[in-house]
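B., you asked whether I could sanity-check this one before it goes into the benchmark set. Here's the sequence:
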Amino acid sequence: MARFVLNICGAPYASGAPLSALRFARAALADGHQIDKVFFYQEGVQLATRLACPPQDEIHLTQAWQQLAQEHQLELLVCVAAALKRGLVDPKEALRHGLDTNNLAEGFTLAGLGELIAAMAQADRTLTFTS
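And here's what the prediction gave me:
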């Protein structure tokens, strides 16, 4: 059984990265492997918004990741620097920056790159999904 860290850098709906990573995660978990952390970085952070409303005939990637995380107790970490740069904030960051609302989806947590590096050091493999 392998331990994986997934690093998702591609934007939802503009690249295949989030969907490819989701499919990989489902298959790996079904085969008995472990996913230590899922890290959303660069444009991939956009997946963590609670405001996405894709058409009904498309997969709702945010909800799909939330469901997978809940079913398998996965940590969904979002790079705080990349998120802030793209207007994605949790309640704490909204308050800190004087914003009147937040938009980080439930189940996602803002984190620094140090968390990714620490997870990579413990995992057997790190897979990066970029496009």
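One thing to flag: The helical segments are 17-30, 61-72, 80-85, 91-96, 113-122. Otherwise nothing jumped out at me.
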